[in-house]
Amino acid sequence: MEEEALRRVLREDEWRRMDALRSQLWLWMSRKERYWRQLSRCRIISEGDRNTKYFDLTATMRRQRNWIDKLMLNGEEVSDVQL
């Protein structure tokens, strides 16, 4: 539908439909994300903190995901630290 919006002007009911579809897509994607997060938590509980390859990999991935490599300050992107 987005391609159609680029080709022509959409009617109001078409815009509402597209917004509804986007909302549903976001809802299902967040549910899927939550499902996989919960499944990983169950696996962490069963695997435990036994320094396994799985635990090491999840800790590494979490560290990478939580790393802040750049910030927006006053509309300017800052990626290096200047002390």
Features:
83 residues, mainly alpha, 66% helix
The overall number of domains is 1
Q: What is the general shape?
A: flat
Estimate percent helicity.
55-70%
Total beta strand runs: 2
Beta-strand proportion:
5-15%
SSE string, helices as H and strands as E: HHHEE
State the distance separating the first and last CA atoms.
49 Å
Q: What is the radius of gyration computed over CA atoms, rounded to a whole number of angstroms?
A: 21 Å
Description:
This protein has 83 residues and is mainly α. It has one domain. Helices cover 66% and strands 7% of the residues. The protein contains three helices and two strands; from the N terminus they run H-H-H-E-E. The protein has a two-stranded antiparallel sheet. The protein is flat. The termini are far apart. The model has no long low-confidence stretch (mean pLDDT 81).
